[in-house]
Amino acid sequence: MDLDLALRDDSPPPLTDQSTSDEKRNNERWKRSNRLCLIIIKKAVPEAFRGTMSETTVTAKEFLQDIEKRFVNNEKAEVSMLLTRLISMKYSGKDNIREYIMEMSHLVSKLNALKLKLSEELLVHLILISLPTQFSQFKVSYNCQKETWSLNELISHCVEEEERLKQEQTESAHLVSTTNNKSKGLKRKKEKGAADTVSEKKQQKKSNDQGKNSCFFCGAEGHQKKHCTNYHAWRAKKLLYVDDILLASNDIDLLHEIKKFLTKNFEMKDLGDASFVLGIQTHRDRSRGILELSQNGYIEKCPKNAFEKKEMQKIPYASAVESLMYAQVCTRSDIAYITGMLGRYLSNLRLDHWKATKRVLRYLQKTKDYMLTYRNSDELEIIGYTDSDYTGCQDTMKSTSDYVYLLAGGAISWKSAKQSLIASSTMAAEFIICYEASNQGILL
Question: Residue 52: CB partners within 8 Å, gap ≥ 6?
């Protein structure tokens, strides 16, 4: 007997005197199926639903249709709920990634059934966006490819990447604590006796068993620290972060190749041509072949008014001279001589030295826009100038040597320092500086 005959077929026409035996038999079968279906359905649904049904409902098929009308859902609300759930999904790393992708695919299938069509390509991008930072290299690799993956290809590649990440995980002493504190137990045994030691070991073993399945990083249950996605994301940011990288080469193709390699393996941003190098601001005019080096920003930090000069008195004299020395070593060759003079009195400071230091700072503030300028030239010729003052230091009777080398119209090397020997004449002082400058010229 077909129990669901009344649900599959409509009610047969009423019997007449001319009905055949087959029609009578089919009619009886349908009525019996209808009675049994009504009994089963009414027994399964709550009594409140049975009382709300119309008395004209005599077939099981009509009874089910009436119940269905009372459970009609708002498609807009359901679409909004499913779409919100799909967008907010994030892979935690605890479950199987294949099951996670299939769950997202199931949500898309429900949305398609509700007449919200989402393409497979969009689903692939949503899945990649929801993956954690451990899959960053995997996502960069996909973005660099011209062809797109199907859902099945994405599942296959994600499973392979997950297996690769699991194999690369290494055991480390600070990931999971499994010590049983034997040294503490021995110490307690000596101090409190064997009974306290046994109790301590049992308590320690119990605490280790309780924390075996908990993460020491995020505190969640069900995984250890070495399998925690949040920990690996934090560790990756900590170990791979680099403030900036300066690349310089005459081979443009090599520079582009290196940038492409770094961008493929790390998350980075190309800041273009360098504008600041070690605190020195660079200005480049390629059309005129000019390169300018300036320390305007560094000199801008020098004292500008009486209040700042008064506050500067709290700063040690050595720190002020050190700041001046940094400026003269990089771009300000015009203060090389006075910086060398001020540096001689670090251990025997007087008020006159402070006044001279503040005077140099005022000079730098007025000339902060001065910069080194280099021009493009077909003839790269190094030109050097030397000078010396005979017995310039009255305390040691030593002379001071000065030299500067120019290339492409700008200074590239300079020095102002006291000579190591005591010159007996002006000619001897000039000879010493010529010897020191020539050695520097050979190095250049």
Answer: 70
> In Å, what is the CA distance from 269 to each residue of 263, 284, 342?
8, 22, 44
Q: Residue 349 in contact with residue 386, Cβ under 8 Å?
A: no
Domain edges within the chain: 5-69, 75-165, 190-240, 242-267, 273-376, 377-444
User: Could you tell me whether strands 410-418 and 383-389 are parallel, antiparallel, or unpaired per DSSP bridges?
Assistant: unpaired
> How far is 258 from 252, CA to CA, in rounded Å?
10
Q: Which tens digit of pLDDT belongs to each residue from 175-226?
A: 444 444 444 444 444 454 545 554 555 555 545 555 556 787 777 777 777 7
Give the three-state DSSP class for 331.
Answer: coil
Residue 199 CB-half CA count within 13 A? 6
pTM comes to: 0.34
What per-residue confidence (pLDDT) applies to 198?
Answer: 47
Helix (H, G, I), strand (E, B) or coil at 363: helix
Give me the pLDDT at residue 242, please. 55
Taking residue 162's Cβ as centre, other Cβ atoms within 10 Å add up to 19
How many whole angstroms from its chain centre is CA 172?
Answer: 23
